[in-house]
Amino acid sequence: MILTPRPSLTYRLVSGVLVFPLFRLLFRGSTRGNEQVPMQGPLVVVANHGSHLDPPLLGHALGRPVAFMAKAELFRIPLLGPLIRACGAYPVKRGASDREAIRTATARLQEGWAIGVFLDGTRQPDGRVNHPMPGAALLSARSGAPLLPVAILNSHRALGTGRSWPRLVPVQLRIGEPIPAPTSRRKPDLEAATIELQRRINALLDQG
Q1: Phi and psi of 17, rounded to 5°?
Q2: Using CB atoms within 10 A of its CB, is residue 194 exposed (0-12), middle (13-18) or buried (19+)?
Q3: Residue 135: which of 72, 49, 32 has the closest Cα?
Q4: d(CA 154, CA 132)
Q5: Using one digit for the tens of pLDDT, what is the confidence trace for 162-187?
Q6: Are 156 and 53 in contact (CB under 8 A)?
Q7: Beta strand 43-47 with 147-153: parallel, antiparallel or unpaired?
Q8: Taking the model in full, what pTM does it have?
Q9: 3-state secondary structure 51-91
Q10: What is the DSSP letter of 207?
Q11: What is the DSSP code string of 138-196?
Q12: For position 161, what pLDDT does the model report?
């Protein structure tokens, strides 16, 4: 059995002192569907992407740490480097191939981590999944980890593209049912899983 890495002291401090006060108080944040989150073993957490708020919210609101890839240069910055590493970020070299990034993320999954992936790859002005990429499905197929669809509501309105100052609107995370890993790495299987993730995340966004 693969053990899930336990949250570090730094991770718990960041959650308690920074992320949750901002999420709960400033943005009146809430989560729905936490009972859907597998608490043990590898997991690919897949979400829409509307703003820079999304990684810390997704990384701290599911009840288990979620790791994200970050530029290797960030890890050399005093204080910031140790901080983001303690919170589960893993380095990817600037200009690294997609294949290298996939290998790095797969290694983290084999250690039992939950890995966060934004399905479009980049922020979307409307906060929806519009141009899904197959990276999450490929990670899942390589590792056997289930896919967990998560919808982040209103982060694009709170601090979306073109905004330099946050708008204090309610932000909510809605968590869907896990999806089993694709049966193979063949393109049709990866495309089918990616389309299903897009459908489920956008359906969660549309629920009231």
Answers
A1: -95, -30
A2: buried
A3: 49
A4: 19
A5: 777 778 888 999 999 999 999 999 99
A6: no
A7: parallel
A8: 0.88
A9: CCCHHHHHHHCCCCCEECEEEHHHHHCCCHHHHHHHCCCEE
A10: -
A11: HHHHHH-PPEEEEEEESHHHHH-TT-SS------EEEE---BPPPS-SSHHHHHHHHHH
A12: 77
Over pLDDT 70: what percentage of the chain?
95
Please tell me the distance from the alpha carbon of residue 26 to that of residue 30, in angstroms, as a whole number. Answer: 11
Q: Which residues are paired to 118 by β-bridges? A: 47
User: In terms of pLDDT, which residue wins out, 40 or 5?
Assistant: 40
Q: 69-73 contacts: CB < 8 A, separation 24 or more?
A: 69/101, 69/104, 69/105
Q: Give me 159's structure tokens.
A: 């601090």
Q: List the one residue out of 79, 71, 64, 35 whose CA is nearest residue 177.
A: 35
* CA 118 and chain centroid, separation: 6
| Amino acid occupying residue 93 | K
Question: Cβ distance 119 to 201 under 8 Å?
Answer: yes
Mean pLDDT of the chain: 86
* Tens digits of residue pLDDT in 94-122: 655 567 778 888 988 998 999 999 999 88
pLDDT, tens digit, 9 for 90 and up, residues 38-78? 999 999 999 999 988 888 888 888 888 888 877 778 788 88
Tell me how far CA of residue 113 lies from CA of 62, 67, 98, 178, 190, in angstroms. 13, 7, 20, 16, 21
